[in-house]
């Protein structure tokens, strides 16, 4: 019987009648409460065979404890016109009985067997030969080392400082533009000086946006190149 023994373990016993007469059989065990035998008795025709299922009930297995359970298959030639199996065994003489004894053996699967079963259940890996013809990529091409990471962090800090500086300048220019618009709006005479200042204030904003966009593009290009 192969473990684990946390559930019912079944072992089949094949009985074959090589004679030219019918044979009655009976299966006995020294531990009837631990086993369920189906069928435990019957008749085998000449040249035929019968499968007997021996079911071991769940129990706490101790590898240090040797099994003392035994089975005995008892047989005798069937009398003609048999009607009562119990009567056959009661009336059978000792010299008419034949028996075969079997000892139970409990085995737990080895760790190597478990590993082999697990490996066999896993699907075989599929190899792509077209990708394996070339050299394998180097580790530094997949992940950044400490030096590159430090450079990237410093570059990010520098770009963030520049962005904050440009944001402050943009805010100052916007405030200056609003002030110039108010001055131009209040100047009803429409002097050339006021008009020139308003044009300079309005033209400075697009130029600043172009500079900020260029910095962001440079940041992302530098990140992908690294």
Automatic annotation (TrEMBL):
Please state where this protein is localized: Cell junction, Tight junction; Cell membrane; Endoplasmic reticulum membrane
Query: Species name for this entry?
Result: Smutsornis africanus (Double-banded courser)
What is the name of this protein? Vesicle-associated membrane protein-associated protein A
Membrane spanning stretches: 205-225
As for membrane topology, the entry says: Single-pass type IV membrane protein
Map out region (Disordered) in residue numbers.
111-143
Q: What is the lineage of its organism?
A: Eukaryota, Metazoa, Chordata, Craniata, Vertebrata
**Gene3D superfamilies annotated for this entry?**
Immunoglobulins
One cellular component (GO) term of this entry: bicellular tight junction
Whichever gene encodes this chain, its name is: Vapa
């Amino acid at each position: 019987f192969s473990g684990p023994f946390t559930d019912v373990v079944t072992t089949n016993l094949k009985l074959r009648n090589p004679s030219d007469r019918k044979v009655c059989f009976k299966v006995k065990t020294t531990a009837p409460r631990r086993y369920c035998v189906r069928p435990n008795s019957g008749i085998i025709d000449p040249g035929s065979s019968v499968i007997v299922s021996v079911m071991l009930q769940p129990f706490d297995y101790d590898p240090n404890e040797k099994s003392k359970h035994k089975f005995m298959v008892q047989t005798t030639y069937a009398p003609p016109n048999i009607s009562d199996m119990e009567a056959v065994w009661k009336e059978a003489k000792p010299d008419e009985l034949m028996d075969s004894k079997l000892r139970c053996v409990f085995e737990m699967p080895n760790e190597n067997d478990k590993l082999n079963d697990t490996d066999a259940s896993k699907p075989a890996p599929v190899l792509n030969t077209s990708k394996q013809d070339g050299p394998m990529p180097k580790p530094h091409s997949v992940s950044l080392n400490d030096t590159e990471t430090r450079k990237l962090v410093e570059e990010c800090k520098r770009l963030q400082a520049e962005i904050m500086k440009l944001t402050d300048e943009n805010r100052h220019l916007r405030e200056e533009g609003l002030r110039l618009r108010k001055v131009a709006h209040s100047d009803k005479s429409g002097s050339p000086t006021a008009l020139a200042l308003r044009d300079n204030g309005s033209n400075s904003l697009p130029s600043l946006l172009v500079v900020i966009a260029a910095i962001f593009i440079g940041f992302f290009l530098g990140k992908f190149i690294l």
